[in-house]
Amino acid sequence: MKIIIADKAGFCFGVKRAVDMAINYTESHDSLISLGQLIHNDQVTNRLEKNGLVKVDNLEGLKDKTVLIRSHGVGKDIYEKSEAQNLEMLDATCPFVKKVHRIVHDYHDKGYKIIIVGNKDHPEIIGINGWCKNEALIVSDENELPVLDKGPYCLVAQTTLKLSVWNGLVDKVKSFDVEAEFFNTICSATAERQRAAMALAPKVDLMIVIGGYHSSNTRKLYEICSTLCEETLHVEKKSDLVMTNLDKYVMIGITAGASTPDWVIEEIVDHLKAMQ
Ligand code: SF4
Questions:
Q1: I want to staple 154 with a disulfide (CB 3.0 to 4.6 A). Which of 7, 107, 177, 219 is the partner?
Q2: Would you say the CB of residue 12 lies under 6 angstroms from ligand 1?
Q3: CA-CA distance, 119 to 93, in Å (whole number)?
Q4: What is the pLDDT of residue 44?
């Protein structure tokens, strides 16, 4: 049995930066408040919580605290509230997400109607919408797009969106013959992981996708892999991998979402080797 790890797998730049910021801060301070779960990976957040990271769902009642903004980013109102409450901010918003905030804010100011392509319930999308007064039309794919009246429109994508979904949306908007600006804001980390998974999945008998069950980029990797490899598993940690007959696999492929640290990938590889 051969185990092959996809060329690009695991922690992306933005998540690594946010986790490093949280680790560095908690090493020299007593506590740090995280607005929402820092990343969708319980193994990492459990470790940080032991060092004093406390998760809250909103800023209500907080005083004299430092608040960590996670890589998904937040809306403009959170910056305003935090300033009004005199809270310190440790802003770990991924620079790629910040760029989307700037586009949405600028184009909304110029009178464009904002369309965000992504999952309306995802914190990144909620944050982006908060930079255009929560007035964006949010669609998850071209089928949700209503007939567009006159624009102008400004389209941006959730950074973890599949390129094919974005392309479908662009074609549909163009078919309405309206004025529109398109900003493909899909992050290269996501595209690279998706491309590497696409290249590996058809060559192996079993594909294992590692990452949080709530991590949207991991779930998208799973979707892609399961269309290309008949046997595809999504696991979050070593103990989720319950397999008995490994002998039937000649090649096992591994990929991991952007919020999966290297040590979780290594643990699963070692576990597979030990089961041989
Ligand atoms: S996936 Fe891309 S946009 Fe999202 S945190 Fe990672 S580097 Fe940033």
A1: 107
A2: yes
A3: 18
A4: 85
DSSP strand pairing (113-117 vs 66-69): unpaired
Catalytic residues: 124
* Residue-range domains of the chain with CATH: 2-10+189-275 (3.40.1010.20), 13-93 (3.40.50.11270), 96-186 (3.40.1010.20)
pLDDT at 193: 92
Answer left, alpha or beta for residue 52, where phi above 0 means left and psi between -120 and 50 means alpha.
Answer: left
- Max Cα-Cα span within the chain: 62
In order, the DSSP letters of 93-149 are --HHHHHHHHHHHHHHHTTPEEEEES-TTSHHHHHHHTTTTT--EEESSGGGPPPP-
Across 176-195, b (16+ Cβ under 10 Å) vs e yields eeeebebeebbbebbbbbbb
Phi then psi dihedrals of residue 66, to 5 deg: -105, 130
Instruction: With CA atoms as reference, report the closest residue to 145 among 168, 177, 112.
Output: 168
Which of 37, 190, 195, 260 for mutating ligand 1's site (highest number of atoms within 8 Å of CB)?
190
pLDDT reported for residue 209 = 97
What does the pLDDT read at residue 55? 94
Q: Chunked in runs of 10, what are the mean pLDDT values of the chain (276 residues)?
A: 95 92 92 89 86 94 94 96 96 96 98 97 96 98 94 94 93 94 92 94 97 88 96 93 84 94 93 87
Contact 154, 103 (CB under 8 A): yes
pLDDT at 99: 97
SS3 67: strand
The helix/strand/coil state of 62 is coil
Q: How is residue 269 written in tokens?
A: 């590889």
